[in-house]
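User: Show me sequence and structure for the first protein, then do the same for the second.

Assistant: Starting with the first protein.
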Amino acid sequence: MRILIFFLLPFVAGCGGRIINTPASNTVENDAPLVSRLPDIPGLQTYDGTSFSLAAFYGKPLVIISWETACERCGEQLIQAAFVRRQLGGVIPFIAINRREPSSVAKAFTDSLGITNELSLAVDNEDFFYRTIGGSSLPEILFVTPERDILFHEKGYVAFESLQEKALVLLENMSNDAP
C-alpha cells in the first residue's frame, strides 16, 4: 500500500488538484478558481497572423475549445465539435484556440483532420486564454451564453452525446431569452 501511495502522491500533487472519475472520462480538477464570465482575451491570431477577437462573437452563444496537437484526445474532440456545429446548422460558433504552437503546426493538424474550414480557429501564443480560464487539462471546453456567462466548463475530453447535449442547452437558453 505504501508503494502505491508513494507512486501516486507525486502525480496528484503535480496536478494541483484531485482526480475526478466521471462516466465519460477521467479529468483533473484544478484548484484555481474558474471564471464565470468569458473574459476579453488579447493576442489571439488566425493561422495567417491576423488578429482574432472573441468580441466579434459577443451576443451569440459560443463553444470554445482549448487544444494542442500533443493532446491525445483533442483531434477527436475537434472533429466532434465540427460535426455538432454542422448538425445545429452553424447557429452556434465553435471556436478552437490552440495553445502556444506555431500556426503552421496547428494548421497542418486541423488540415489533417479536415476541419480547418469547419471551425473558427485561433492560436494563443501567450497561452493567455488557457491560464485565464483556470485551465488544467486538455481539451478544455467552455459553453458560453450570448451574455458571456459560462454555462459549462468541461475539463478533459467530453463524450459526443454530452457535447451535443450541452450545445443544445445553449440553444434552448438563447430561445428562452428571445422576446
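Switching to the second protein now.
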Amino acid sequence: MDTLSFHLHTQADVHGLRQVFRLPENLFDDDVIAFAQQKYRVLLEEEIFPHHLQKITAITYVLRYGEKDFYIRTLNNGNEEKILTDFFYILETIQPHLICRQQPKILLYRSLINGISTPSFDWLNAVDDFVSSQKYLDDLSILCGFPLLESFDKNSQEEVQTLNDYLIYLRYALSTNAIDADQYHQEIAIVRHFLSQYSQYSHWQTYLREWQ
C-alpha cells in the first residue's frame, strides 16, 4: 500500500489573531501572541491555538510507494498557499494511506482560509487511526529501538520524527497482520537502503548508527 507519513510545521497566524481579536496593527507580534495565548488559556484551558489559527510554514513527509520507491522531503519553498498546493498535488496523484500524529484537519482549515481545493479522494478518512490517536509515540519509538530525537539537531528532528512515525506504523501493520514478517523486513530493508544512499547527510549517518 502506498503510504505517506507527514508532519506539519506550524506557527501562530499573527495576522489572523489580529483580525479575530481586533488588535491594532502597531501592536508587536509577540504581544499579539501573548494576548491570544491568555485568551485561549481562559477559553480552552490551553495555550495551543485552534487549528484555523495555526499557519503552516512547512510540511515534512516520508513517502513509500510503488515497488521500492522511498523519499523523505520537506516542502518549505514558498508561502502557505504554495506549500498546501504542492502537498495536495502529491496526495491527489498518489492517493496514499496517511500517517500523521497531528490533527490533519489543520490542512482543511488552512486550505479553506487560503481558498484552495483539497484532494478529491476521502483523504481525511485515509489517515491511520492508530498513529493519530497515540499520545506516546516518542515513548514507542524508544521502546521499538528507533533513534532518540535528542541525538539530532533541531533542524533534523522533524524528519527523524516523521520517519519514526512511519516505522511505528510498520510495526503496527505487522502486529495486526496487515503485513507478514517477510513483508515487514522487506520494507525495513528499503528504508535502510535509502538512508545508506544519503550518508552525506550527517543526521542519517547518526540514524543508521543508532537504529537497533
